[in-house]
């Protein structure tokens, strides 16, 4: 889901994120979001950024175990 929550206000983003959580017993989601409330409901968070030209940084955060990995790719 690519920024499905982009047009929602904060209260509705929280409602949407909690609803998605109820569906995760039988379904996996990949959600692209900029909203903190959606990120707070996930099991695993990936962040990919390009802070300098030609250098991609990937962040992997597994929230259940608090494992954090940071990788840089030229």
What would you say this structure looks like, in words?
There is one protein chain. With 74 residues, the protein is an alpha+beta fold. The protein has helices at 10-22, 36-40; strands at 44-52, 55-62, 67-73. The chain has a 3-stranded antiparallel sheet with strand order 1-2-3, with no helix packed on it. Strand 2 (55-62) and strand 3 form a beta hairpin. 8% of the residues are buried.
Give me a quick take on this structure.
This protein has helices at residues 10-22, 36-40, and strands at residues 44-52, 55-62, 67-73.
Give the strand tally.
3
Radius of gyration over C-alpha positions, nearest whole angstrom? 14 Å
SS element count, helices: 2
Main beta-sheet annotation: 3 strands, antiparallel
Kindly name the structural category. Answer: alpha+beta
Give the CA-CA distance, first to last residue: 27 Å
Write down the secondary-structure element order. Answer: HHEEE
Helix percent band: 10-25%
Could you tell me the strand content as a percent range?
25-35%
Overall pLDDT score: 83
What order do the strands of the largest sheet run in, or round the barrel if closed?
Answer: 1-2-3
Low-confidence stretches: none
Query: Rough shape?
Result: globular
Topology of helices and strands:
Layout: H1 10-22, H2 36-40, E1 44-52, E2 55-62, E3 67-73
Antiparallel strand pairs: 1-2, 2-3
Q: What distinguishing features does this structure have?
A:
74 residues, alpha+beta, three-stranded antiparallel beta sheet, 3 strands
């Amino acid at each position: 889901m690519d920024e499905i929550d982009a047009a929602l206000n904060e209260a509705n983003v929280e409602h949407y994120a909690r609803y998605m959580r109820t569906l995760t017993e039988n379904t996996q989601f990949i959600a692209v979001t900029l909203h903190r409330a959606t990120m707070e409901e996930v099991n695993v968070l990936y962040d990919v950024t390009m802070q300098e030209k030609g250098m991609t940084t990937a962040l992997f955060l597994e929230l259940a175990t608090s494992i954090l990995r940071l990788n840089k790719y030229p």
